[in-house]
Amino acid sequence: MKSMGSRDKLAAASAASGHRRALYVVFAFATFLTFLYTTSHFTSAAMSGSGSAAGDSASSASATGGGGASVSDSGSTKLPLPVFDALVHYASISNATHRMPDTDIRAVSAVLRARAPCNLLVFGLGAESPLWLALNHGGRTVFLEENEFYVKYLEPRHQGLEAYDVSYTTKVRDFRDLLAAARAARAKECRPVQNLLFSECRLAINDLPNDLYDVAWDMVLIDGPSGWNPNSPGRMPSIFTTAVLARSGATAAKGPTDVLVHDFQFEVEQVLSKEFLCDENRVAGSGTPSLGHFVIPGGGGRSDAFCSAQEEGSSESGEKTRRRK
Length: 325
Hints:
By secondary structure, this protein is an alpha/beta fold. It is built from 11 helices and 6 strands. Keywords: Membrane, Transmembrane, Transmembrane helix.
């Protein structure tokens, strides 16, 4: 169906010791820089006394209101730009195998810079996972991974890495049948606004920890599951589930959601993104040929259409039905 993408190559080489060493290096560097910043921040605060505390409160309020990003419950603020840029720089020049191209790393980082600290949901664990975690310092970053081995291996070794394994039932070879079924049930089981916990749509992911469905996600990066052969699960469920999350519940209520789809040059990613994330929501001049960037407006939407073209189609279908009557 399609050639092997960066995330898919990682799944095919799970035992590669070189990859693990590279991941350790990137995460260790990210942790070191974050430690330096945190230590410096608290040392300065302790020396400056109550006047500094008032200034910190004003700075925190400014960060929350000016950038549109939500600050986590811990009250942490953005990473300083020099630290942020250093992390991106060293990740982009890394010789680690099975990683994103430099241009994609920088494109994802640019969106994350605007939103962090925020609630970030990432489909797939990979070479860049420690980078996304570090860049979203002060926010919540959750990874959803098809390979239970990665979750069990990486999470205990990296403090703050929150990851859950997901069992997918779809296959790339069936993606057109699955898409046709979702279209037919767009006003019912596969509707855009719904509670995914109780969804019966075949593309819906409804077995995550319950609290994840109540999180107001600011940004979603779709870099999994694998889709490099007909028997791979493909990214149909992750794209559909993201589209519903962005239009439902807490995520829709808080405002627009940035959605990034990696390996966008492939058929499944393009077709499903067009169907559920919609061309009208794609950000012109953002992303790369292999990274699609969409912004889904907040406030929900029609219950029977993801995109405006589908709304027109639904209206025409309803008009024909009324005329026959």
